[in-house]
Amino acid sequence: MRATKTGISWRLFLFSCLFLETSSQDFGAQTQFICTSVPKDMDICAATLQNSVPGEDLKTTVMQLRETVLQQKETIMNQKETIRELTSKLSRCESQSGAEPGDARPGARRKDAGSKNTMGDVSRGPADTLTQLSQTLQSLKQRLENLEQFSRSNNSVQASSLKDLLQSKIDDLEKQVLSRVNSIEEGKPGLRNETEQRGRVESTLTSIHQRITDLEKGQRDNRPLDKFQLTFPLRTNYMYAKVKKSLPEMYALTVCMWLKSNASPGVGTPFSYAVPGQANELVLIEWGNNPMEILINDKVAKLPFLINDGKWHHICVTWTTRDGVWEAFQDGVKRGSGENLAPYHPIKPQGLLILGQEQDTLGGGFDATQAFVGDLANFHIWDRKLSVGEIYNLATCSSKAQVGNVFAWMETSLDIYGGASKWTFEACRQLN
């Protein structure tokens, strides 16, 4: 029986030596292993680590291996985290590329740079292009009729000849629009050049707008300086008007104006006021499918306005810095109110007030998708909260209506850019 136990112990000793000799190949030539006899009931690694000198070397090696494994595990975890981040970013990019530009919420501020259209007009399909061109042509025709009436009453030969020239150009444009309709209906391959054709047509329209504006400038002496409207016929990033002076510091305000638009989705940005360090100091915007909003110091309040029906509407917004209380009026009637809109934040001075565009930077960074499309008139700003009666007088074109004490609507107070045009204001004349 003893001989048997001795034989088994000896075989375990040989097995231990063979195991360690084979494993030594994995640790390099400089690692030394000592073979020792191991009792039958004892763990091989535990018995080896109990040795005083060689066991310490083996223990150090095992600890180094363990540390290497942990480092590799940490590296793998980091790589997995990187993969998850990249996957998430890829998903966001895919979702953004499939979303409509107008779906983003402007109140969240700031838009991704990739969503901006910095090349001019908003991308439009054939139907949208035709609708836009038709509306513009109608506007031009109406203005030409006004010019014709003026030239007859004043016996102006020059105005009449220019009117005939412009009428001829408009007739040519109508033929191009009709040709575009036929192309769409028949599915001709000429639609491949739609972008270039639209660019040429709208360039001609801009030129016509400028010629009409030149004609209209000759009539300024025949009407009061405040009886005019601004027309923004196209959704671009280059049509706008700049107020020549800045706003003062204000702890309360009232902003009123007449608007007419049937743009969809959203009428755009009637005005924006930016100061150094804050592009959204005071903004009125209806962007995409969102309701109209007013922003003060980048804080947002939704306004209950419904104005994109192609008719003139008078709107007013009042605000006080105390508790951020605001009220909204449409056509002389209070439609909504709220509070906590930028409370205790005064409107800062030394900024730029732009009509027709939303500023992403001071005086620039215009985005065509947020541009105002339509007509704007009688834009006034006060540094106080107007009463309900005062707002009603403005909306009904009463002789008692006041003008803004911070900004009053005057032709001499504005610089016009990009083909935005002026003409006699018609809303109050229609009401009377």
Automatic annotation (TrEMBL):
Compositional bias ranges of the Polar residues kind: 88-98
Q: Keyword annotations for this protein?
A: Calcium, Coiled coil, Disulfide bond, Glycoprotein, Metal-binding, Signal
Q: Which cofactor does it need?
A: Ca(2+)
Which InterPro entries does this entry report, sorted A to Z? ConA-like_dom_sf (IPR013320), Neuronal_Pentraxin_Related (IPR051360), Pentaxin_CS (IPR030476), PTX_dom (IPR001759)
| Domain Pentraxin (PTX): from-to ranges | 226-428
Tell me the CDD domains matching this sequence.
PTX (cd00152)
Region of interest called Disordered, as start-end residue ranges on this chain: 88-127
Q: Which residues form a coiled coil?
A: 130-176
Named from the GO MF annotations, one term is: metal ion binding
N-terminal signal peptide: 1-24
Query: Domain of life, per the record?
Result: Eukaryota
In Swiss-Prot or TrEMBL terms, this protein is called Neuronal pentraxin 1 like
Task: Give the species.
Answer: Gasterosteus aculeatus aculeatus
- Organism lineage string: Eukaryota, Metazoa, Chordata, Craniata, Vertebrata
